[in-house]
Amino acid sequence: MTTNESTAASLRDMRLCFYGAGSMAEALIQGLTKRGLIAPERIGVMNRSNGGRLAELAERYGVSPLHDTGERLAWLREADIVFLAMKPKDAGAALAALRGVVTERQLLVSVIAGLPIATIGRLVGENVPVVRTMPNTSSTIGLGATGVSYSQNVPAEGRAVAETIFGAVGMTAVVDEPLLDAVTGVSGSGPAYVYYLMEAMIDAAGQLGLAPEAARELTVQTVLGAAQMMRTTGGDPAELRRKVTSPGGTTEAAIAVLDESGFPDAVRRAVARAAERAGELGAIMERSASK
Ligand SMILES: NC(=O)C1=CN([C@@H]2O[C@H](COP(=O)(O)OP(=O)(O)OC[C@H]3O[C@@H](n4cnc5c(N)ncnc54)[C@H](O)[C@@H]3O)[C@@H](O)[C@H]2O)C=CC1
Ligand SMILES: O=C(O)[C@@H]1CCC=N1
Known about the structure:
Layout: H1 3-12, E1 16-19, H2 23-34, E2 43-46, H3 51-61, E3 64-65, H4 69-78, E4 81-84, H5 88-96, E5 107-110, H6 117-124, E6 130-134, E7 144-150, H7 156-168, E8 170-174, H8 180-188, H9 190-207, H10 212-233, H11 237-244, H12 250-260, H13 263-289
Parallel strand pairs: 1-2, 1-4, 2-3, 4-5, 5-6, 7-8
Antiparallel strand pairs: 6-7
Helix pairs in contact: 1-7, 5-13, 6-13, 8-13, 9-10
Bound molecules: 1,4-dihydronicotinamide adenine dinucleotide and (2S)-3,4-dihydro-2H-pyrrole-2-carboxylic acid (A1CAB).
1,4-dihydronicotinamide adenine dinucleotide binds at residues 19-25, 46-48, 50, 85-88, 90, 93-94, 111-113, 134-137, 188.
């Protein structure tokens, strides 16, 4: 058995607990269950108060909804991996409740934007191994992009399991922890920039008279094709753009409008601002953790 096969086999015997059951948790649950990485009932889901949401996830994916406090505590204690998947503003209180509950035998996997490994350690105890990640919602369909960093005490098997999980729902890049804020700006928030561009393209197509379905399908295929071209050819995006742009033609006219509107600079500033915001959220969480 290869290392990958034995890691996948040990993952199948594990229990996972999602602490926070929102969009990002669902993206990972869907990716993991649809790929058959683990039996769905081995995944427990809990949230703050919305029992209906847990029932919905149980119905959709077959995961185990954790409604009462005893049940939640038992899963948090016994899970091999606990995913921290609440909003940054809720992280402090949620993590403080884990102190004395999770131990060094488990793995804490955070998907929370900006939350430093040191802050997690301060709240739950320094002995607990932490995997800090920045995934994105495309994990739902196996096309996620996840940045990963480890606390010093994550054992080799823990690293292999984390990379197997995120690798099964897309690609992973292990980076130094400070770079996770940049990953957040590029690929964590990134799908929203692309959707925003697509919203505007569909809108423009409609204004030019295309039927909504045609506007949508032409836009989707264009984005998909452009991404796939870049991947398949390995080409530089500027060069691929040049191949579309005939001198004196339509693309050149369009790019001139984007340049006049400051498009490239706006995108650079948006990515940088998202990364900066991740740092700000981290600092807020660190300040409240050290009070
Ligand atoms: N949505 C996205 O595209 C991405 C989100 N993230 C990160 O994932 C985290 C979650 O984001 P979303 O899923 O979008 O948020 P969401 O609002 O959809 O879900 C948050 C969940 O946390 C639960 N929660 C809050 N406090 C809790 C507590 N004390 N105990 C138990 N559950 C609690 C809520 O009930 C809810 O189920 C955030 O920290 C975000 O930075 C990371 C990458 C991408
Ligand atoms: O907007 C957010 O804060 C989260 C983190 C990356 C994507 N969504």
